[in-house]
Amino acid sequence: MSTENEGTAVPPAPSAPPVPVESPAASAPAQAPEPGASSDGTAAQGAPTAPIPAVPASAPEAAEQQLVHTGASAYASPGGQGADGHAQAQGAPGAPGAPYGGTAPAQADWPPPPPPATPSYADGGGSGTGWGSSYQQPAPKPSGKRGGLLAAILVAALVAGGVGGGIGYTLADRSESSGDSTTISASQSGGDLKRDPGTVAAVASKALPSTVTIEAESSSGEGGTGTGFVFDKQGHIVTNNHVVAGAVDGGKLTATFPTGKKYDAEVVGHAQGYDVAVIKLKNAPSDLNPLTLGDSDKVAVGDSTIAIGAPFGLSNTVTTGIISAKNRPVASSDGGNSTKASYMSALQTDASINPGNSGGPLLDAQGNVIGINSAIQSSSNGGLGGTGQSGSIGLGFAIPINQAKNVAQQLIKTGKPVYPVIGASVTLTESAGGAKITEEGEGGSDAVTPGGPADKAGLKPGDLITKLDDTPIDSGPTLIGEIWTHQPGDKVTLTYTRDGKTQTAEVTLGQREGDS
After folding, report:
1. Are 362 and 305 contacting, i.e. CB atoms less than 8 angstroms apart?
2. Is residue 60 scored above 50 in pLDDT?
3. Class of 303-378+391-405 per CATH?
4. Where are the transmembrane segments (predicted)?
């Protein structure tokens, strides 16, 4: 949506009354022109002139066109459409003194009628008739070496320019008085440029050597590009599952550092549900520097973020933004033929993230990893793992590093992920007002696993779960994403409704090993 304020013509301000011509008797004797006066009698710069009375505050200003451009991009729900507007000038100026697009009025007769005998603006002061008080030409003052206006401009420049301006003025003044010419050469060197540790440039220069561009190729020859970062000195690289999924069974993986060094790699383990994978460099170098991991639980909305990746194959790209939201429930696919989704309680950022950023680090202002860039919401509803090349609209999502770290360590240890579970099937629709336990599980199995955590807590099919601890639950994917931020064995409190009554139950989370 845009708002335009079209330019509206304003009538021109009335001209000031002409300066009266003194009678010959009152005129001063003719004098020789002052130094610096022009040959046609026009006063030189700085020479005193007859002051023009100030225009009354009520006099309208000269016409001026103004444009106000307010752009609002609306984002509401899938299928919603934003609009944008561009302010445009409405019409072109016409003849001088005429309204925009209009015609100039006919010229008045010339010469104009003589002014009143005693001109002055009627703003009080003085006696007389016509315009008001009488007017007298002030006596001319001797002009100095510099005009008053020029001196005022120089003073303003010196105040703005500080020490540098003062030196420049001193040199110029001495040059004028001596008649000599002074040439000052500007330095061709900006000196040593030192960046503070907290600047984006400093963080990027430290983090980039520990990021890699990953190329994954399936056994059928299909491939894609993603990003990863050094997790430890043994050569483990953390990335997204959907980056390497195609190369898991007989495919080929390579990881390229910003220096151009490329290494073959292999998949150590991958978790489709978490969308996390770990690969290991073959013949890894001994000078690897793992990135420092931050604490994603302590991240606050508004904190600065830095994303590193290879958007559209452009390796070592750095973008910046902020944390826009926390605990954003996100479900995304791996971009393949699998119907299984990944669930996360994500960090949302407006740092530009595009296809190819997947698996790259999301850093805080100190350079600590706080998340793994994983998905985006785009205007065509594409994700980072999708086959389309949808671009960033400022809605990027990252897996919190606290969760990703636990998953990565489990994959390095056993090669398989472990998921915390409540032992109940829930609906996956996003408009249920909560996570409803289904009447029947997958393949006709029990919706509530007999002897499982939910069964022991007294939950039944049809119960609508609306809260996990203090986190509101509005859908099944939200519940799954929140559960997966915990560890097996953790105790959580579930709030649910049954037959219109709200109840709570304490549940000790169970576990499931591997993707099913």
Report:
1. yes
2. no
3. mainly beta
4. 149-172
Q: How far apart are CA 465 and CA 434, in angstroms?
A: 6
Q: Is 43 helix (H, G, I), strand (E, B) or coil?
A: coil
Which one of the listed residues 210, 242, 296, 425 is annotated catalytic? Answer: 242
End-to-end CA distance of the chain: 47
242 tagged catalytic = yes
- Between CA 253 and CA 258, with CA 255 as vertex, the angle to 5 degrees is 160
Residue 358 designated active-site: yes
Q: CATH 2.40.10.10 residue ranges in the chain?
A: 200-281, 303-378+391-405
Range 418-513 has CATH code 2.30.42.10? yes
Query: Which of 358, 374, 425, 475 is the catalytic position?
Result: 358
| Catalytic residue chosen out of the listed positions 236, 275, 345, 364 | 275
82-116 pLDDT, tens digit each: 434 333 333 333 334 434 334 444 444 555 555 54
- The pLDDT tens digits for 332-365 are 875 555 557 899 999 999 999 999 999 999 999 9
Model pTM score: 0.62
Contacts of residue 350, Cβ cutoff 8 Å, sequence gap at least 6:
321, 322, 324, 394, 395, 396
The answer as to CATH 2.40.10.10 being correct for domain 200-281 is yes
Instruction: Enumerate the CATH 2.30.42.10 domain ranges in the chain, comma separated.
Output: 418-513
The runs of H, that is alpha helices, within 179-318 are 200-207, 241-244
